[in-house]
Structure formats: C-alpha cells, structure tokens
User: What shape does this take?
Amino acid sequence: MQKKHLYLLLLIAGTAFWGISFTFVKVGIGAGSPFVFLFYKFLIAAFCLAFVFFRQLKLISVKTLKITFLIGVPLLAGTVLQTIGLQYTTVSNAAFITGLDVLLIPILKFLIYKKKIENKIWIACILALIGLYIIVVKDGLSLNSGDVLIVACAFGFAFYVLQVGKYATEENPIPAVILLMLFCAFGCLILALFDEASVWLPNTNGFWRGVLFAAIPATAFMYAVQNVGRRYLGEEKVALTYLFEPVFATIAGVFILGEDFTYQVLAGGLLIISAMFISEINFKKNPSKN
Assistant: This one.
C-alpha cells in the first residue's frame, strides 16, 4: 500500500476518533469544570507523543517555541469554547457547527491576507448558513448559548488552521506538536485554578474514560497523523476527510447518549456537509486524458 493511501485511511480513522470523542467529552465534563478535563487531556497527549517521538525532542529550538505559541493560542481558544459549548448543546449540533471552520478559512484568508474568494466559497457559505439556521435556530431567532459558543470555537479552529498552514513547510512538525499539547495543557491549568467548579480527582462515571479517549486516539494519534500525513496528501484531500467527523459524532451521540436525531438536524447537517464538500472540490481541474 502506498504511503498516501495509508495516511488517507489513518486520517479517516482519526476523524472517526474526533467525532466519537464529542460523546466522551460531553459525558466526561458533566456538570464539572471543563478546564480540568482539558488539562488532563492535553497533558496525557503530550506525554504519549513525547514517549513515541522521544528522539525528536532534541530538535526543539527557539523557533519551535515561537511557532508553538502562534498556533497554540487559537487552538486553545477553540478547544475551550467547544468544550464549554458541549455542556449546553447536543453532540450533533456541536459537530456540524464546528465543521463551519472549513468555510471560515478562505474567508479569513481574504480578510487577513487579501486572497481572492472563489465563487464556489460564496455558494458554500450560503448553503452552510442555511444549514446552520435549520439546526440551531429555534423559537424564532433565538440561539442556544451552547451553539453560540460552538460558532465562536469554529473561528478559533479556523485561525489555528491558518497558522498551521503558515508554518507547514517546517521539516519536523512533531516537536512543535508536542510543545503545542503542553502549551494547551498549561493554559487549561491556569483556567482551572480560577474555576470554583474544579475538582482535580473527579470520582464521576465517565471522566477518566473520556479523558483517555480524548487524549490518546482523538488528540495524540490524530495530531501526529495530521501533521506527518501532510507530506503525502494534498490539502484538498486532508480537508475532505474532515467531512466524516460530524457523521461519526452524530452516530455516537444517537447510539451512546440516546440523543434525538430529527429531520431538522439531518437536513441542516446535509447542507453543511454539502457546503464543505463544494468548498474543497477543484471544479476547474482538467480530467485526466487516456
């Protein structure tokens, strides 16, 4: 099997872990502090990556520290907003709305770097906004507070992807990923210290199971595959694998948590996935000649 095919399969597996982790996180945080949960998640992920890639730790430099800070701030913001939002909205809502970051990326590129937005992006954005409206707007023009936080988290993740793309030419991304996990762990530790709901050794069902699942397959594995796989896969294919995340999240939410999966969520979700698909397909690409 060629490496590009192997990493494509690994990325799809990683998006499955991402999607399923929404359910584990929602159960894990319960009514407690999301910051404690995230602190353990990032800390365990950092140690796992450091153990596997121990020899690459010597490659850490001042430049690595700078890159870690620049990509760590938006990732930390996006993750914190998403985790808090999960306390107040459903897994399927959170997953589909988070997927909007795929559409926000080209728009932010236009606003920040003045890069032209293709017509397909405008079409995709219209479809996604309609899908978002169908999913989250209830009782007129009111939004669930959790859904609002998830929309904000999508902006955080979009900025994170832009920053990662800016430094994607680095030859050894793993040292930066390890430091990234430690940076996020430290940030969550600081937030947890100021949270009155923080319990450092929770004895609640699902907390530690949720931490381990979110830390190892959904974070350590996925971030390692994501960064190494970029050497063998184009950005277009990588982005398209993210289409699987809300699908796996919704399935997990229905079968594990017993969440309702209404026609409203189905219709809105399909529109958002269609928008993501349209935004990543290269319609101008010439078909290969025989």
User: Anything to note?
Assistant: Residues 3-280 form one domain. The chain has a mean pLDDT of 82. Residues 3-29 form the longest helix (27 residues). The longest strand covers residues 137-138.
